Amino acid sequence: MRYQLDTIPVWDAYKAGGECPLCALRQQNEAMYVDSFLGASVMEPDTRVEVNEKGFCPEHFRQMFAQKNRLGLALITHTYMKDVIASVDAILERAAQGDGGGFLRRLGGKPSAKEDPGAAVRARTGKCVLCERLDYTMRRYAYTLVHLFTHDREFQRAFLDSQGLCLQDTALVLDMACEMLSGRERAAFFAAVRDVQKKNLERVEKELEWFTLKFDYRNQDKPWGNSRDALERAINKLQGACVHGGEA
Ligand SMILES: [Zn+2]
Ligand SMILES: [Zn+2]
After folding, report:
1. N or C end of the chain, less CB within 10 A?
2. Buried b (16+ CB within 10 A) or exposed e, 151-188
3. Rounded CA separation 176/193 (Å)
4. Largest Cα span, the chain
5. What is the 136 CA–ligand 1 centroid distance (Å)?
């Protein structure tokens, strides 16, 4: 799949630095989407229809709930809920008419939605319109990153001099490079990713080690160096930005 390039935000994120420029972009866009779903955009008919169909995951409901725009959130939750009630009732009605798929399951067959009402309810409530938008945006940034790396020497240097990426976004750019590049270009990109990741993962690992050693009373008076927030940065390096404000 081809994406439109969006070079300015990617360059800006690399200029700002940090443990994962893609995580920084994800957080900016996530905050923007949270705002827009609570704001005017959700009153647009197309968005309404999509929200009613997909709803939000627990994490994004939590982020919107934390915004304190209770009326905005109540309005979208209300129309979504009416839609969900209708579909869940239809699932339960079908389930009540059948035998719940027990017969098929005994035969080892795969039950349909009609015969597996639990899966059908889970599918109805398991999507998230915000996650879908964010995933698309992040794939677009990953596409731009790989493109810039192969076409722009200056970006190539910025990438190699950066503090690397979290492992989740490492996987994202590797997937994207597999789709976009082949031969020498792909090998060069993988070599650069390995170089920058090895160096920076080992750096954070050492900083985390010093963090643990600082708890030894013999090291009490030694300087923290860069290790004060090493636990936070190590977790975020492993799983993408998920914890904040964890200074010792
Ligand atoms: Zn990341
Ligand atoms: Zn979500």
Report:
1. N
2. eeeebbebbeebbbbbebbbebbbebbeebbeeeebee
3. 13
4. 72
5. 15
- Ligand found nearest the CA of 238: 1
Give the Å distances, CA to CA, from 18 to 13, 108, 153, 174, 210.
Answer: 8, 51, 21, 20, 20
CA–centroid distance, 60 to ligand 1, in Å, is: 18
Q: What residues have a C-beta under 5 A from ligand 2, the ion? A: 57, 60, 128, 130-131
Ligand 1 mean position, distance from CA 196 (Å)? 14
Compute, in angstroms, the gap from residue 239 CA to the centroid of ligand 1: 8
Compute the distance between CA of residue 173 and CA of residue 165 in angstroms, rounded to an integer: 9
Output the tens digit of pLDDT for each of the chain's 248 residues: 789 999 999 999 999 999 999 999 999 999 999 999 998 766 788 888 999 999 999 999 999 999 988 998 999 999 999 999 999 999 999 999 875 555 555 556 565 656 799 999 999 999 999 999 999 999 999 999 999 999 999 999 999 999 999 999 999 999 999 999 999 999 999 999 999 999 999 999 999 999 999 999 999 999 999 999 999 999 999 999 999 875 66
CA of 6 to the centre of ligand 2 (A): 23
Q: What is the pTM of this model?
A: 0.89
